[in-house]
Amino acid sequence: MSFHDILGQEDAKRLLQNALRNDTVSHAYLFSGPSGSGQMSTALTFAQAIFCTVSDDDACGECLECRKVEHGNHPDLTILRPDGASIKIDQIRELQRMFSYRSEGVNPKIYIIDEADKMTVQAGNSLLKFLEEPSAPAVGILISDNSRALLPTIQSRTQRIPFSPVHPDLMLQALASDGVPLPLARCGVSLTSGLEGCRQLLEQNWFAEMRNLVLQLAKESLGKGSSALATAGVKLFKTGLGEHLDTLFSMFHLWFKDMLYFLYRKHESIVFIDQLDFISRHARQRTTEQWVGYMEFAAESKRKLRSNANAQLCLEQFLIRLES
After folding, report:
1. Residues 161-188: pLDDT tens digits?
2. Distance CA 289, CA 286 (A)
3. Which of 134, 162, 190 is the last residue of a domain?
4. How many Cβ atoms sit within 10 Å of the Cβ of residue 121?
5. How far apart are CA 241 and CA 111, in angstroms?
6. Are residues 18 and 157 in the same domain?
7. Sequence-distant (≥ 6) Cβ neighbours of residue 300 within 8 angstroms
8. What is this structure's pTM?
9. How many Cβ atoms are within 10 Å of 233's Cβ, its own excluded?
10. Based on the domain organization, do 134 and 270 belong to the same domain?
11. Least confident stretch, 35-39, 59-63, 101-105
12. How many CB atoms neighbour CB 296 within 10 A?
């Protein structure tokens, strides 16, 4: 992995490579931005570049140090992730214990904390002491899609590296090279902020199945005497797809937006492009206000779901509102 392999994020890459060239690598960074936009792959590349014995501003990918990072067995690199719902104080204490030993090489030890905003207050306070007074030379990389949830004192003691959503066209080109079918790729790209997150989503076995189900339900809900409720009951809660209702409502939101894109002649923006014929025949069956209202239904259903409302009830209420 090299910085050249990371899609987009030019500002983040420039800041990190300048630090490598000028030998001004900070003791702690906060990679802040939407989930899946490349923070982890950038963090690993940055770690490789610090350890690399060949290049001074990138990872060569060939030297022993780079290959150790690639294979996940570099002794001076530690990756910390939530244990269950949070990162606990015991995990930070174990990190401090490991970092009390000297590095095996001439470079500092590196730790990456994924989903750093999920640290408990106790874990955050413990990390704060470590950030201020590491027992050995260390570089910390905190990754977060909700950096405001971090203790303000941690935010102030790290150098923020901003990450932004990757342009959809760039992601589509990369996914086409991977051989991902265009209809699936367009849907995945519209639901994620970067190639890293998009690939993870597309690798889920249920994703293509969910897309097909959303199309079926969306078409059935437009007809008289709709059977969408019955279809949802059978196909969602008896197959395990019911665990991914958040994605279902997001896909419905895209579907309703596609109807508006057609009405406003923005065909190039349509996500469900393989359904253009159906969309062209049905977009005018509802007014602009109705399609916008349906988008609001989908967004409201997602909010209810995240507030731990009953999943099946959420879906039933949503489908009934579409048919009324």
Report:
1. 999 988 899 999 999 998 999 999 999 9
2. 8
3. 162
4. 9
5. 36
6. yes
7. none
8. 0.77
9. 15
10. no
11. 101-105
12. 13
